[in-house]
Amino acid sequence: MSELPTPDDAACAHSRRVARHIRDEIARAGGWISFARYMELALYAPGLGYYAAGSVKLGREGDFVTAPEISSLFGRTLARQVAQILERCGGAVLELGAGSGRLAQDLLTELEALGRLPEAYLILEVSPDLRRRQETVLARLSAPLRARLRWLEALPPRFRGVVIGNEVLDALPVHVVAWRGQRLFERGVAVEGDAFVWRERALAHPALRRAASAIPVPDGYVSEISLAAPALVRTLGTTLEQGVLLFIDYGFPAAEYYHPQRATGTLVCHYRHRVHDDPFLWPGLQDITAHVDYTAAARAAREAGLEVLGFASQAWFLVNCGLTDLLAAVPAQDAARYLPLAAEAQKLVSPAEMGELFKVLAVGRGVSAPLLGFACGDRSHTLD
């Protein structure tokens, strides 16, 4: 890991506190915890975890950049899909984990321009630090738009409208499973000295065992299974009276996720815009993520009585929703404005950037297809 920048003394001290907290948890559990529990503590332990403490996470000074940080074109284009859904069912917008607040800012501004503002713009944010940052960014909105904003502590019991999860499912804890001969093992975390190490145990978790047993992979395969992401989709599905859930994240259908050539899984860590594969390095200072199994998410939606309304690459979705029209509205002769915007659009749709790896899944109730974002390039058939 010599290529990674070294944290400063204060950050290292914070990471040691996080590590001590996790070691104490492992000791209380008898010397072993699942990786899902380790990931949950490293990311969300109150006042300590990566998303619960005060480090800068997004943008140039953070660890990674999301699409809304790259360009306002992302939120403005997404707004056209949101507007179509609101026209059909009315209601509010609920954003899960609003990051820096940039997406909410761009969405509300564009929805106002389109004449299709939601009844309210709700934000469910588990990170106190990120909520403060969102409040600062969204304070720039006009008073009428700010009046529609409301932060939630929990999901509402009933909801009508559009739920947006941009890079949410990938940040939920995952279990790590190893297929060894005819036996299944769960990879968890133990302590050697002061260091965290991988330790395998026979897989005992009933739901996890059922999920792992249904995945056909070669001997020696190691990968992640998320129980939390499908659970969230099912919960949202029972909450949704009418409307659409939109998930935007990097991931694959199950046939690609558990492809024989992807034999070591998808788990990655982000630190200062570097990507590496050691989740035990500097706990509390780095993001830990796994790609999304979109087949599992779609299955969970159907179990909750929702219909799959579309599944496409981010590139197809944004083009369908009018990204090129927004870009064309800026004269190419105005190079100072057009060239930076064109470069941003390229990052959003290029297969070498976010265009192909990121997917968009739409599931809903009481809203008929087709949706604007899936007019071309719909791959819903790959989720079966």
Automatic annotation (TrEMBL):
The keyword Transferase applies. Keywords: Methyltransferase, Transferase. GO terms for biological process: methylation. It holds the Pfam family Methyltransf_28. This is Class I SAM-dependent methyltransferase. The keyword Transport does not apply. SUPFAM superfamilies: S-adenosyl-L-methionine-dependent methyltransferases (SSF53335). GO terms for molecular function: protein-arginine omega-N symmetric methyltransferase activity. It comes from Pelomicrobium methylotrophicum.
